[in-house]
Amino acid sequence: MLFSKITSAITVLTFPILALGAGENEWKSKTIYQVITDRFAVGDNQPVPGHCDGQNRFNYCGGTLNGIKDKLPYIKSLGFDAIWISPTVENTDNGYHGYWARDFYKTNPHFGSSDELKALIQAAHNQGMYVMADVVANHMGPIPNNDVRSFPAPFNKPEYFHQNWRAINYNNQQSVENDNIEDPRLHVLLPDINTENQGAVTELNNWVRWLVNEYGFDGIRIDTLKHVRADFWTDFVASSGVFSLGEAYTGNPDELVRYKDKVHSLLNFPFYYLCRDVFQQGQTMWKVEEYLNMMRQKFGQQKLSLLGTFVDNHDVPRFLNAQPDRSLLRNALALSMFTDGMPYVYYGTEQEYAGGADPENREPLWYVPYNSQGTTTARVISAWNRVRKQAGSALTNDVHHPVWTESNIHVFYRGPVIVATTNSGSNGPLIQRTIPNLPFPTGTVFANAMDPNDRITVNNGAVTLSLMVEPKVYLRV
Q1: Spatial contact of 373 and 329, defined as CB atoms under 8 Å apart
Q2: Strand, coil or helix: what is 242?
């Protein structure tokens, strides 16, 4: 018999964190749906735009804020109770993604008006959903001759920008923080904001405070965290007054941990790379336990429970591009949605999109029906989100307890939920195991979220389950 390498008794450690803005406890109970505004939906009963393929994906394709508002029922039917939308500020040319700011105090007219943004957030709140703003404090959009004086005030002062005007050397952290991101397609440098200049710092803090208060955002997702000196973020987050999720694009936990006390949460890239190794490449599932041990040691349990778990997003190829086996995607999603952390799902994953590197991973969702039951993946996401809601704080206040691991199977419980995953894939064998070391009384019954007739009953701290290809998520009845 193969037992977990992680002890069942897990000490919850307390680490210094920022003063709460808009509720860590509330946010960690959410599942977040990430959308690229320009690619998600067209509103106001407008016709679906034409082709958005190939080179056309480097420019605007027609998605709007009203499109998101009109499709909130679709997002809710998938079970999500928070959405993360693209940066909303006015951009320089071709900034369909939102990350090339021109004027921080204007709304991107391609997406809609300020009133339409307010209407979207109010409509989301009316449906019990939080809305997360994507914000960028590191850089602005490319401009002719790098003449930052052409930006609208207040960011029209040369001293508000680093004057090196050279591409980043990613092997040098000082260069990452002080040099310029280069767009490899346009061969242009993005103006890099000088966060050593107190005037620039004050303007950024004033802006994020205004943005949240003006529109009523519930949280912020912070882009390019590691491109700015780490101690800048404390006041920036405090100025926002809400929950913060930071993006430091690195799979190295020793690099990521540098920011753990600067923001409330971080995108968990080590988890993303774990899923790539285990489910895309078929490496041993003992890596799940190795990952948990390592992350708990470096981040502490409290912080780990807030990190954002994901299997793909707008910066990486979609899971199915590298591994077309949909059952493996669903196994990765089961781990993402129930392990320690705050799960988010990238739009289109539920519809089994398989785009490659940027911009191929930014497909229009209007290519398929907005149907939460249209694919097996959409159905399991909907069902598992129901489990998360039904389990409530009993799930989110507990932790991932491994109880059985082999090279091709990992079983764990968290609160009233038992999760069984495999990386065997569509041609995998039937796996039948008796799983011991469960803390539930004899006679406790669990039902499979996807098949209520599939029930397992605890007997002397153990259950017997079968697993073949697809993951299973059981909720205590």
Answers
A1: no
A2: coil
Which pLDDT does position 180 carry in this prediction?
98
- What Å distances lie between residue 206 and 197, 236, 240, 349, CA to CA? 14, 9, 9, 36
Instruction: Write down the pTM of the prediction.
Output: 0.94
Residues near 128 by beta carbon (within 8 Å), at least 6 away in sequence: 76, 81
What would the mean pLDDT of 10-23 be, rounded to a whole number? 37
From residue 412, alpha-carbon distances to 165, 404, 430, 447 in Å are: 50, 7, 19, 15
Look up 103 and say whether it is catalytic.
no
Indicate if 223 belongs to the active site. yes
Check: CB of residue 45 under 8 Å from CB of residue 64.
Answer: no
Which amino acid is present at 259?
Y
Q: Write out the H or E segment, with its range, that includes residue 227.
A: none
Q: Where would I find the H helices in 89-232?
A: 114-126, 173-178, 198-215
The answer to whether the bond into 49 is cis (omega within 30° of 0) is no
Q: Which residues pair with 316 in a beta bridge?
A: none
Could you tell me if residue 295 is left (phi over 0), alpha (psi between -120 and 50 degrees) or otherwise beta? alpha
Catalytic residue among 38, 223, 289, 352: 223
Of the chain, the percentage scoring pLDDT greater than 70 comes to 95
Catalytic site residue from 24, 203, 218, 247: 247
Residues 6+ apart with CB under 8 A from 202: none
For residue 377, give the nearest of 417, 325, 340 by alpha carbon: 325
Tokens coding 1: 């018999």
Tell me how far apart the alpha carbons of residues 186 and 83 are, in angstroms, rounded to a whole number: 30
- Residue type present at position 64: T
163 torsion bin: left (phi>0), alpha (psi -120 to 50), beta (else): alpha
